[in-house]
Amino acid sequence: MTGIVICNGSITDYEYYKDYFDDAQLVVCADGGAVHAKKMGVKPDILVGDFDSIQDDVLKWFENTEAEILHYPVEKDMTDSEIAINIAVERGCTYIRILGGFGTRLDHSLANVYLLKKLLDKGIKASIINESNEITLIKDEIKLQKREGYNVSLIPITEKVKGVTTKGLYYPLHEATIEMGSTWGVSNEFVDETAEVTIKSGMLLVILSGK
Asked: Pairing between strand 95-99 and 68-71?
């Protein structure tokens, strides 16, 4: 089941995200992500958080819909985004798109990237998406559809990622080892309509970035 979690990070082009909802079977908003949902014209299934980032009138608007609203205390051991993602997993999502996961708070942005590892450890695939980037963490393989004006970057989050092999990219890799801290995998380009990245060990961030 595909789920979408809308966080309280930066979203400016609301039209950009419309197609991502076509196959979504569950939409969860993390606190101020509800504001984004309202501007998108999306009625989420679930709202979660301490609601310190949402105006009272917006919360009241959602209270008049069929959305399930789950209140959490301000003092808690995880972010609203993590709570929302956990709920999406509990409700049966096997693939999660995270929108609004990046913003001016670098700590929250990085924490959301590392939530991808928590999900992958549970066998859940996930991507963080904004208007210029789509970030997915892999431990095996991924297929990518070409996007005009987009580069592909490969960034390890484990000490080493071994057996890195690519197809359909301008700079090919075959059974390569990329070490954490290396920029070797940054800014590759599509040469075919589809590309593939496979690895044999480790964990690798695969990032589509618009120029």
From this structure: unpaired
